[in-house]
Amino acid sequence: MSIPEEVQDIRCARVALKIWVLRLKAMVEGLPVEKHLIPIQFKKCLFGQWLYGSGAMLAGFSVFDEIKPVHRAMHETGEEIISLMTAEPKGLASMLHHKDFVKNNQLKAQKMLPKLLLAYEQTLHLLAILEQDCLNRALKEQEGSTHNNLLSGQTFEDVMQMLDALDQDVDSWLKKGS
């Protein structure tokens, strides 16, 4: 069985989410990351574009709607982290102690990472369930199409003859069992 397209899309969305989180972590560790590479708005990141775009076709699955608030919470925490990491000191005293200001904000941002990572892990868990649900549906559809294919190319008369033959077999089995 080939991997259904929606499962491939879920996997790509998961990678996009991981990249978003890794960029935030890199920023907190003091590595240079351009702010525009970490969209704050939850519908603007690649994962959000999938979730509210082509991924919306999966809204019929039970866990789909559970993903949205967790994803939104990730962005709220991410926005706080980015604000801390990109803040500029104000006032003469803050400018004189710029390194202390940056280090203090970095420590605050590091304390927020567990909250972000918890929401990320919850999202991954929900995506795994969604992926499994999609795979299960694809298997059921494949099984259904396999059964339908058994009769493809058969005329109505052919099918009726097969049913008659089956009836005869069942009757003979029942007589033998009596």
Largest sheet: none
Q: Runs with pLDDT <50, length 5+?
A: none
| H-E order | HHHHHH
The gross shape turns out to be rod-shaped
Strand content: under 5%
Number of domains: 1
General description of the model:
With 178 residues, the chain is mostly helical. It has one domain (5-177). It has six helices and no strands. Helix 1 (5-28) runs parallel beside helix 3 and helix 3 (64-86) packs antiparallel against helix 5. The chain is rod-shaped.
Short description:
The chain is mainly α and 178 residues long. The chain has one domain (5-177). The protein is 76% helix and 0% strand.
Secondary structure topology:
Blueprint: H1 5-28, H2 46-52, H3 64-86, H4 91-96, H5 98-150, H6 156-177
Helix pairs in contact: 1-2, 1-3, 1-5, 3-5
Salient structural properties:
mainly alpha; 178 residues; 6 helices
